[in-house]
């Protein structure tokens, strides 16, 4: 703690300073008496030692983010064999970041047009909002044709979820959000920060490394009527386990029966299977039933726009009038929160999705990215099966989808992956296959088998 020394005469005694703390300058205040720890008299001059006590003494150190902290630890590791399988960001076969060719073309168009950097409206870029809703629901969907979707551009998926959470807190103060167990780690943080109560519903079955479908239905059934049910539209994070189309239909039946409100988080449309339509089928199943619902979107993964923070919150309403009112209140919440969203990523999306040639090129690039991850997934399964002398069934890896795989490793086993094998991953056993190359699959398989069998 820094200390400072000051000289005081009789008329500037500590008591006098206490009576008028301004004489100490801006560092003084109601805690002024804490500054005077001890003093010595030297004739008419009194020497006073003061200690500058921070007003932030009560602020504790926050724990590192469980996902982003993995990358920090990875960067500090000097091993030549290290692997970063923590953060969900696409990498090439050479494990380098990838900027889509179609994104570069869209940015060149922006330069050619000389587009400015003026503020967007609170709801975002109109062209972006139009194409993003159509991409999600289908341009010919009744919810689009009838004007029943309120779409507001927001700060990627996280910002879209946070905006919706603030809306729920304001207009559904007695409602609770049900989140899958497990789920993306930031989901709980978002609803906590918005002061929206939440509970969990069963999702993952460790015995089968698959979906606990019956447990999921039982928990949704037991929830208070009118609850919000947070669902992953595709490529569930962290498990990579999705319901089948038949299971989605049963989930929709139950949610409709219980008058719940579905709330989809769609972060991987087109990136999971390689098909935009297939990855949006769960959302479209619910929308086709006339249900009111929320959908948070992100373009971080499928267009590689991680740092652009580009996404949207969509609210499907029962009428155009309701959609207009909901949109007005979402804008009202956004205004003091961040005022208006960024334009660069929104223009990229509008240019790509709105241009038939660029749109087709984008779909081809997504198929390549999704295909690379599928190939890595298959190679990892093959290597695990070949190296496992105990003949464990690793086929659950093939049944998972998207960039993540839930390995079934516990915290101690995940620690062994890092400490011994220099494989960085989240402590729940999730690995990002997007950060894995075909050449590294054999090494990863060895690490998994060693950790699974030698660490309890």
UniProtKB/TrEMBL annotation:
Where on the tree of life does the source sit, at the highest rank?
Eukaryota
Q: Where is the Aminotransferase class I/classII large domain?
A: 82-448
EC number(s): the record gives: 2.6.1.1
- Gene3D superfamilies noted in UniProt: Aspartate Aminotransferase, domain 1, Type I PLP-dependent aspartate aminotransferase-like (Major domain)
**Keyword set includes Magnesium:** no
Biological processes, Gene Ontology terms = amino acid metabolic process
The GO terms this record gives for MF are: L-aspartate:2-oxoglutarate aminotransferase activity; pyridoxal phosphate binding
Q: Which reaction does it catalyse?
A: L-aspartate + 2-oxoglutarate = oxaloacetate + L-glutamate
User: One Pfam match, by short name?
Assistant: Aminotran_1_2
Q: What class of enzyme is it?
A: transferase
User: What are the alphabetically sorted keywords of the record?
Assistant: Aminotransferase, Pyridoxal phosphate, Transferase
**Required cofactor names:** pyridoxal 5'-phosphate
Q: How does it assemble?
A: Homodimer.
The entry assigns this protein to a family as follows: Belongs to the class-I pyridoxal-phosphate-dependent aminotransferase family.
Which NCBIfam families does the UniProt record give? PRK09257.1
Instruction: Give the protein's recorded name.
Output: aspartate transaminase
Q: Quote the gene name from the UniProt entry.
A: ASP5
């Amino acid at each position: 703690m820094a200390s400072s020394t000051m000289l005081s005469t009789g008329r500037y005694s500590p008591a006098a300073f206490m009576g008028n703390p301004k004489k100490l300058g801006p560092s003084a205040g109601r805690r002024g008496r804490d500054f005077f720890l001890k003093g010595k008299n030297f004739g008419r001059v009194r020497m006073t030692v003061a200690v500058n006590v921070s007003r932030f003494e009560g602020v504790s150190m926050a724990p590192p983010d469980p996902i982003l902290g993995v990358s920090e630890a990875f960067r500090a590791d000097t091993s030549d064999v290290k692997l970063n399988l923590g953060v969900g960001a696409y990498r090439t076969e050479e494990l380098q970041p990838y900027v889509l060719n179609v994104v570069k073309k869209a940015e060149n168009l922006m330069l050619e047009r000389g587009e400015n950097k003026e503020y967007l409206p609170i709801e975002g870029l109109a062209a972006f909002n139009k194409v993003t809703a159509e991409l999600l629901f289908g341009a010919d969907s009744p919810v689009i044709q009838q004007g029943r979707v309120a779409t507001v551009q927001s700060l990627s998926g996280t910002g879209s979820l946070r905006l919706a959470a603030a809306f729920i807190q304001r207009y559904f103060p007695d409602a609770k959000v049900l989140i899958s167990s497990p789920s993306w780690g930031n989901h709980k943080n978002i609803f906590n920060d918005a002061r929206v109560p939440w509970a969990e519903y069963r999702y993952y079955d460790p015995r089968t490394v698959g979906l606990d479908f019956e447990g999921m239905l039982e928990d949704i059934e037991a929830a208070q009527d009118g609850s919000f049910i947070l669902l992953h539209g595709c490529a569930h994070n962290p498990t990579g386990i999705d319901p089948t189309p038949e299971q989605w239909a049963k989930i929709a039946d139950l949610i409709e029966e219980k008058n719940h409100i579905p709330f989809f988080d769609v972060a991987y449309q087109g990136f999971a299977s390689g098909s935009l339509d297939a990855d949006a089928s769960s959302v479209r199943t619910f929308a086709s039933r006339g249900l009111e619902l929320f959908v948070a979107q992100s373009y971080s993964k499928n267009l590689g726009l991680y740092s652009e923070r580009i996404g949207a919150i969509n609210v499907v309403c029962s009428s155009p009038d309701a959609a207009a009112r909901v949109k007005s209140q979402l804008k009202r919440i956004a205004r003091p929160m961040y005022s208006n969203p960024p334009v660069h990523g929104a223009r990229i999306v509008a240019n790509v999705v709105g241009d038939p040639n660029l749109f087709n090129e984008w779909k081809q690039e997504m198929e390549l990215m999704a295909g690379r991850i599928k190939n890595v997934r298959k190679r990892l399964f093959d290597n695990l099966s070949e190296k496992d002398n105990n003949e464990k069934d690793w086929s659950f890896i093939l049944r998972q989808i998207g960039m993540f795989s839930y390995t079934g490793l516990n915290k101690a086993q995940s620690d062994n992956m890092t400490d011994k094998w220099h494989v960085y991953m989240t402590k729940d056993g999730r690995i990002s296959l997007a950060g894995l190359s075909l050449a590294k699959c054999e090494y990863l398989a060895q690490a998994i088998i060693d950790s699974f069998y030698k660490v309890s």
